[in-house]
Design a protein that fits this description.
single chain; 146 residues; mainly alpha; two-stranded antiparallel sheet; rod-shaped
Length: 146
C-alpha cells in the first residue's frame, strides 16, 4: 500500500502544533540573545567612557601642571619683581637651550655645568662643542656659574 501525502490542512495543523510546542524555547532563546547583546553593548559603552575619562584626566594633569608652573612664575614675579625673574630664569633659556635640563632648578643646572666643565666637554650656542685641557673654564660659563 502506497502512503498518501498529508493534505494541506493537516500540514498546517502540524506546523501550528510544532510552533506552539517550540514557542517557549524560541522565546527564551530570543531573550538570551537580547540579554547577551545588551551586556556587550554596555561593556562597549563602559570601555568608551573609561577611555574618554582617561583622556580627560590626562588633559587635566597637563593643564594642572601648566597652571601650577604659571602660578609659581607669577608668585615669583610678584614677590621679587620682573627683573629678578628675568635674571633668574632667562639665562637658562637663552644660553642652555640645547641642554636637557632647561627650566630646572638653578642649583642643579650649576652642578651639571660644573660636572661638564670638570670633564672638559660642553657646548655653547655660539661656539659649538669644544674641550678644555687641564679642566680650564670658559668665559661664557664663568659669569653664569658663579
Amino acid at each position: 500500500m502506497v502512503r498518501q501525502a498529508p493534505s494541506e490542512s493537516t500540514l498546517e495543523k502540524r506546523r501550528k502544533k510544532h510552533a506552539q510546542a517550540q514557542a517557549p524555547y524560541v522565546k527564551r532563546n530570543l531573550e538570551e540573545v537580547r540579554e547577551k547583546a545588551r551586556i556587550r553593548m554596555s561593556q562597549r559603552l563602559q570601555a568608551k567612557r573609561s577611555k574618554e575619562k582617561a583622556a580627560v584626566a590626562e588633559k587635566r594633569q597637563v593643564w594642572d601642571a601648566d597652571y601650577r608652573e604659571s602660578q609659581r612664575r607669577e608668585n615669583y614675579i610678584e614677590k621679587y619683581g620682573m627683573n629678578a625673574y628675568l635674571t633668574e630664569y632667562r639665562p637658562l633659556y637663552n644660553h642652555y637651550t640645547h641642554l636637557p635640563w632647561v627650566g630646572t632648578s638653578r642649583e642643579r643646572v650649576r652642578a651639571e655645568l660644573k660636572q661638564l666643565e670638570k670633564e672638559g666637554k660642553h657646548e655653547h650656542k655660539s661656539g659649538g662643542k669644544h674641550e678644555h685641557k687641564s679642566g680650564g673654564k670658559c668665559k661664557a660659563h664663568t659669569k653664569s656659574t658663579q
